[in-house]
Structure prediction request, 222 residues.
Amino acid sequence: MLEKANKNSVIILIGIILITLGVVVGTYEYFLQKKNETFSKMNLKLFESEIPENINSEEEYQEKISNDDNIINEEPQEPSTPQVNYSNYLAVLEIPKINLKQGFYSVDSKYNNVDYNITVIQNSTLPDETNNNLILAAHSGDCSICYFHNLYKVLNGDEAYIYYKSVKYKYKVTNIYEVEKNGRVPIYRDFNKNVLTLITCTRNSNTKQTVYILELVSKENY
Prediction:
């Protein structure tokens, strides 16, 4: 009887240990997920000035930059193919559905500004990093630098490509949602996947922005 009681005690003890480990792991994953969600919201709040406003015409754009004391006089080189000079560009974004193919610069470049180009939001992570999130913003509207003018035509299932360090990263749109312009842009995405996030002003709205979440589906050298 004593031996049987000891065996039962061991089984109960093992069960308690396993339950405790399960609770600890579950609690850790829950708080890690909340930490990641909070970081995304804080990230875009800290760099709110880089989230683009809508510019409806070339005249508005010219008026805007004429009042900019830090205007850049040197024009960036326009890319014509993905095989760009990487000493100038960080990478190239291509969205076939809207015939967009545009190079963009690193976060520390003087050209990394929505008034001149597609902009990489600070604290983005690059496509070759694990579980990365590359966040790009650009103007909508009809001006010459409104690179996301036709982004509203992009739907779930559509594709986009990033050309970076001789690798073509293929993404597919998995989520599109609007957020109010209140200083925060929450990023709802799977933190276990590589993601491309695109942000621009919502078409025909002065109070909302649209967020496009694209997940990596494949990559290949080119």
Summary: The chain has a mean pLDDT of 77.
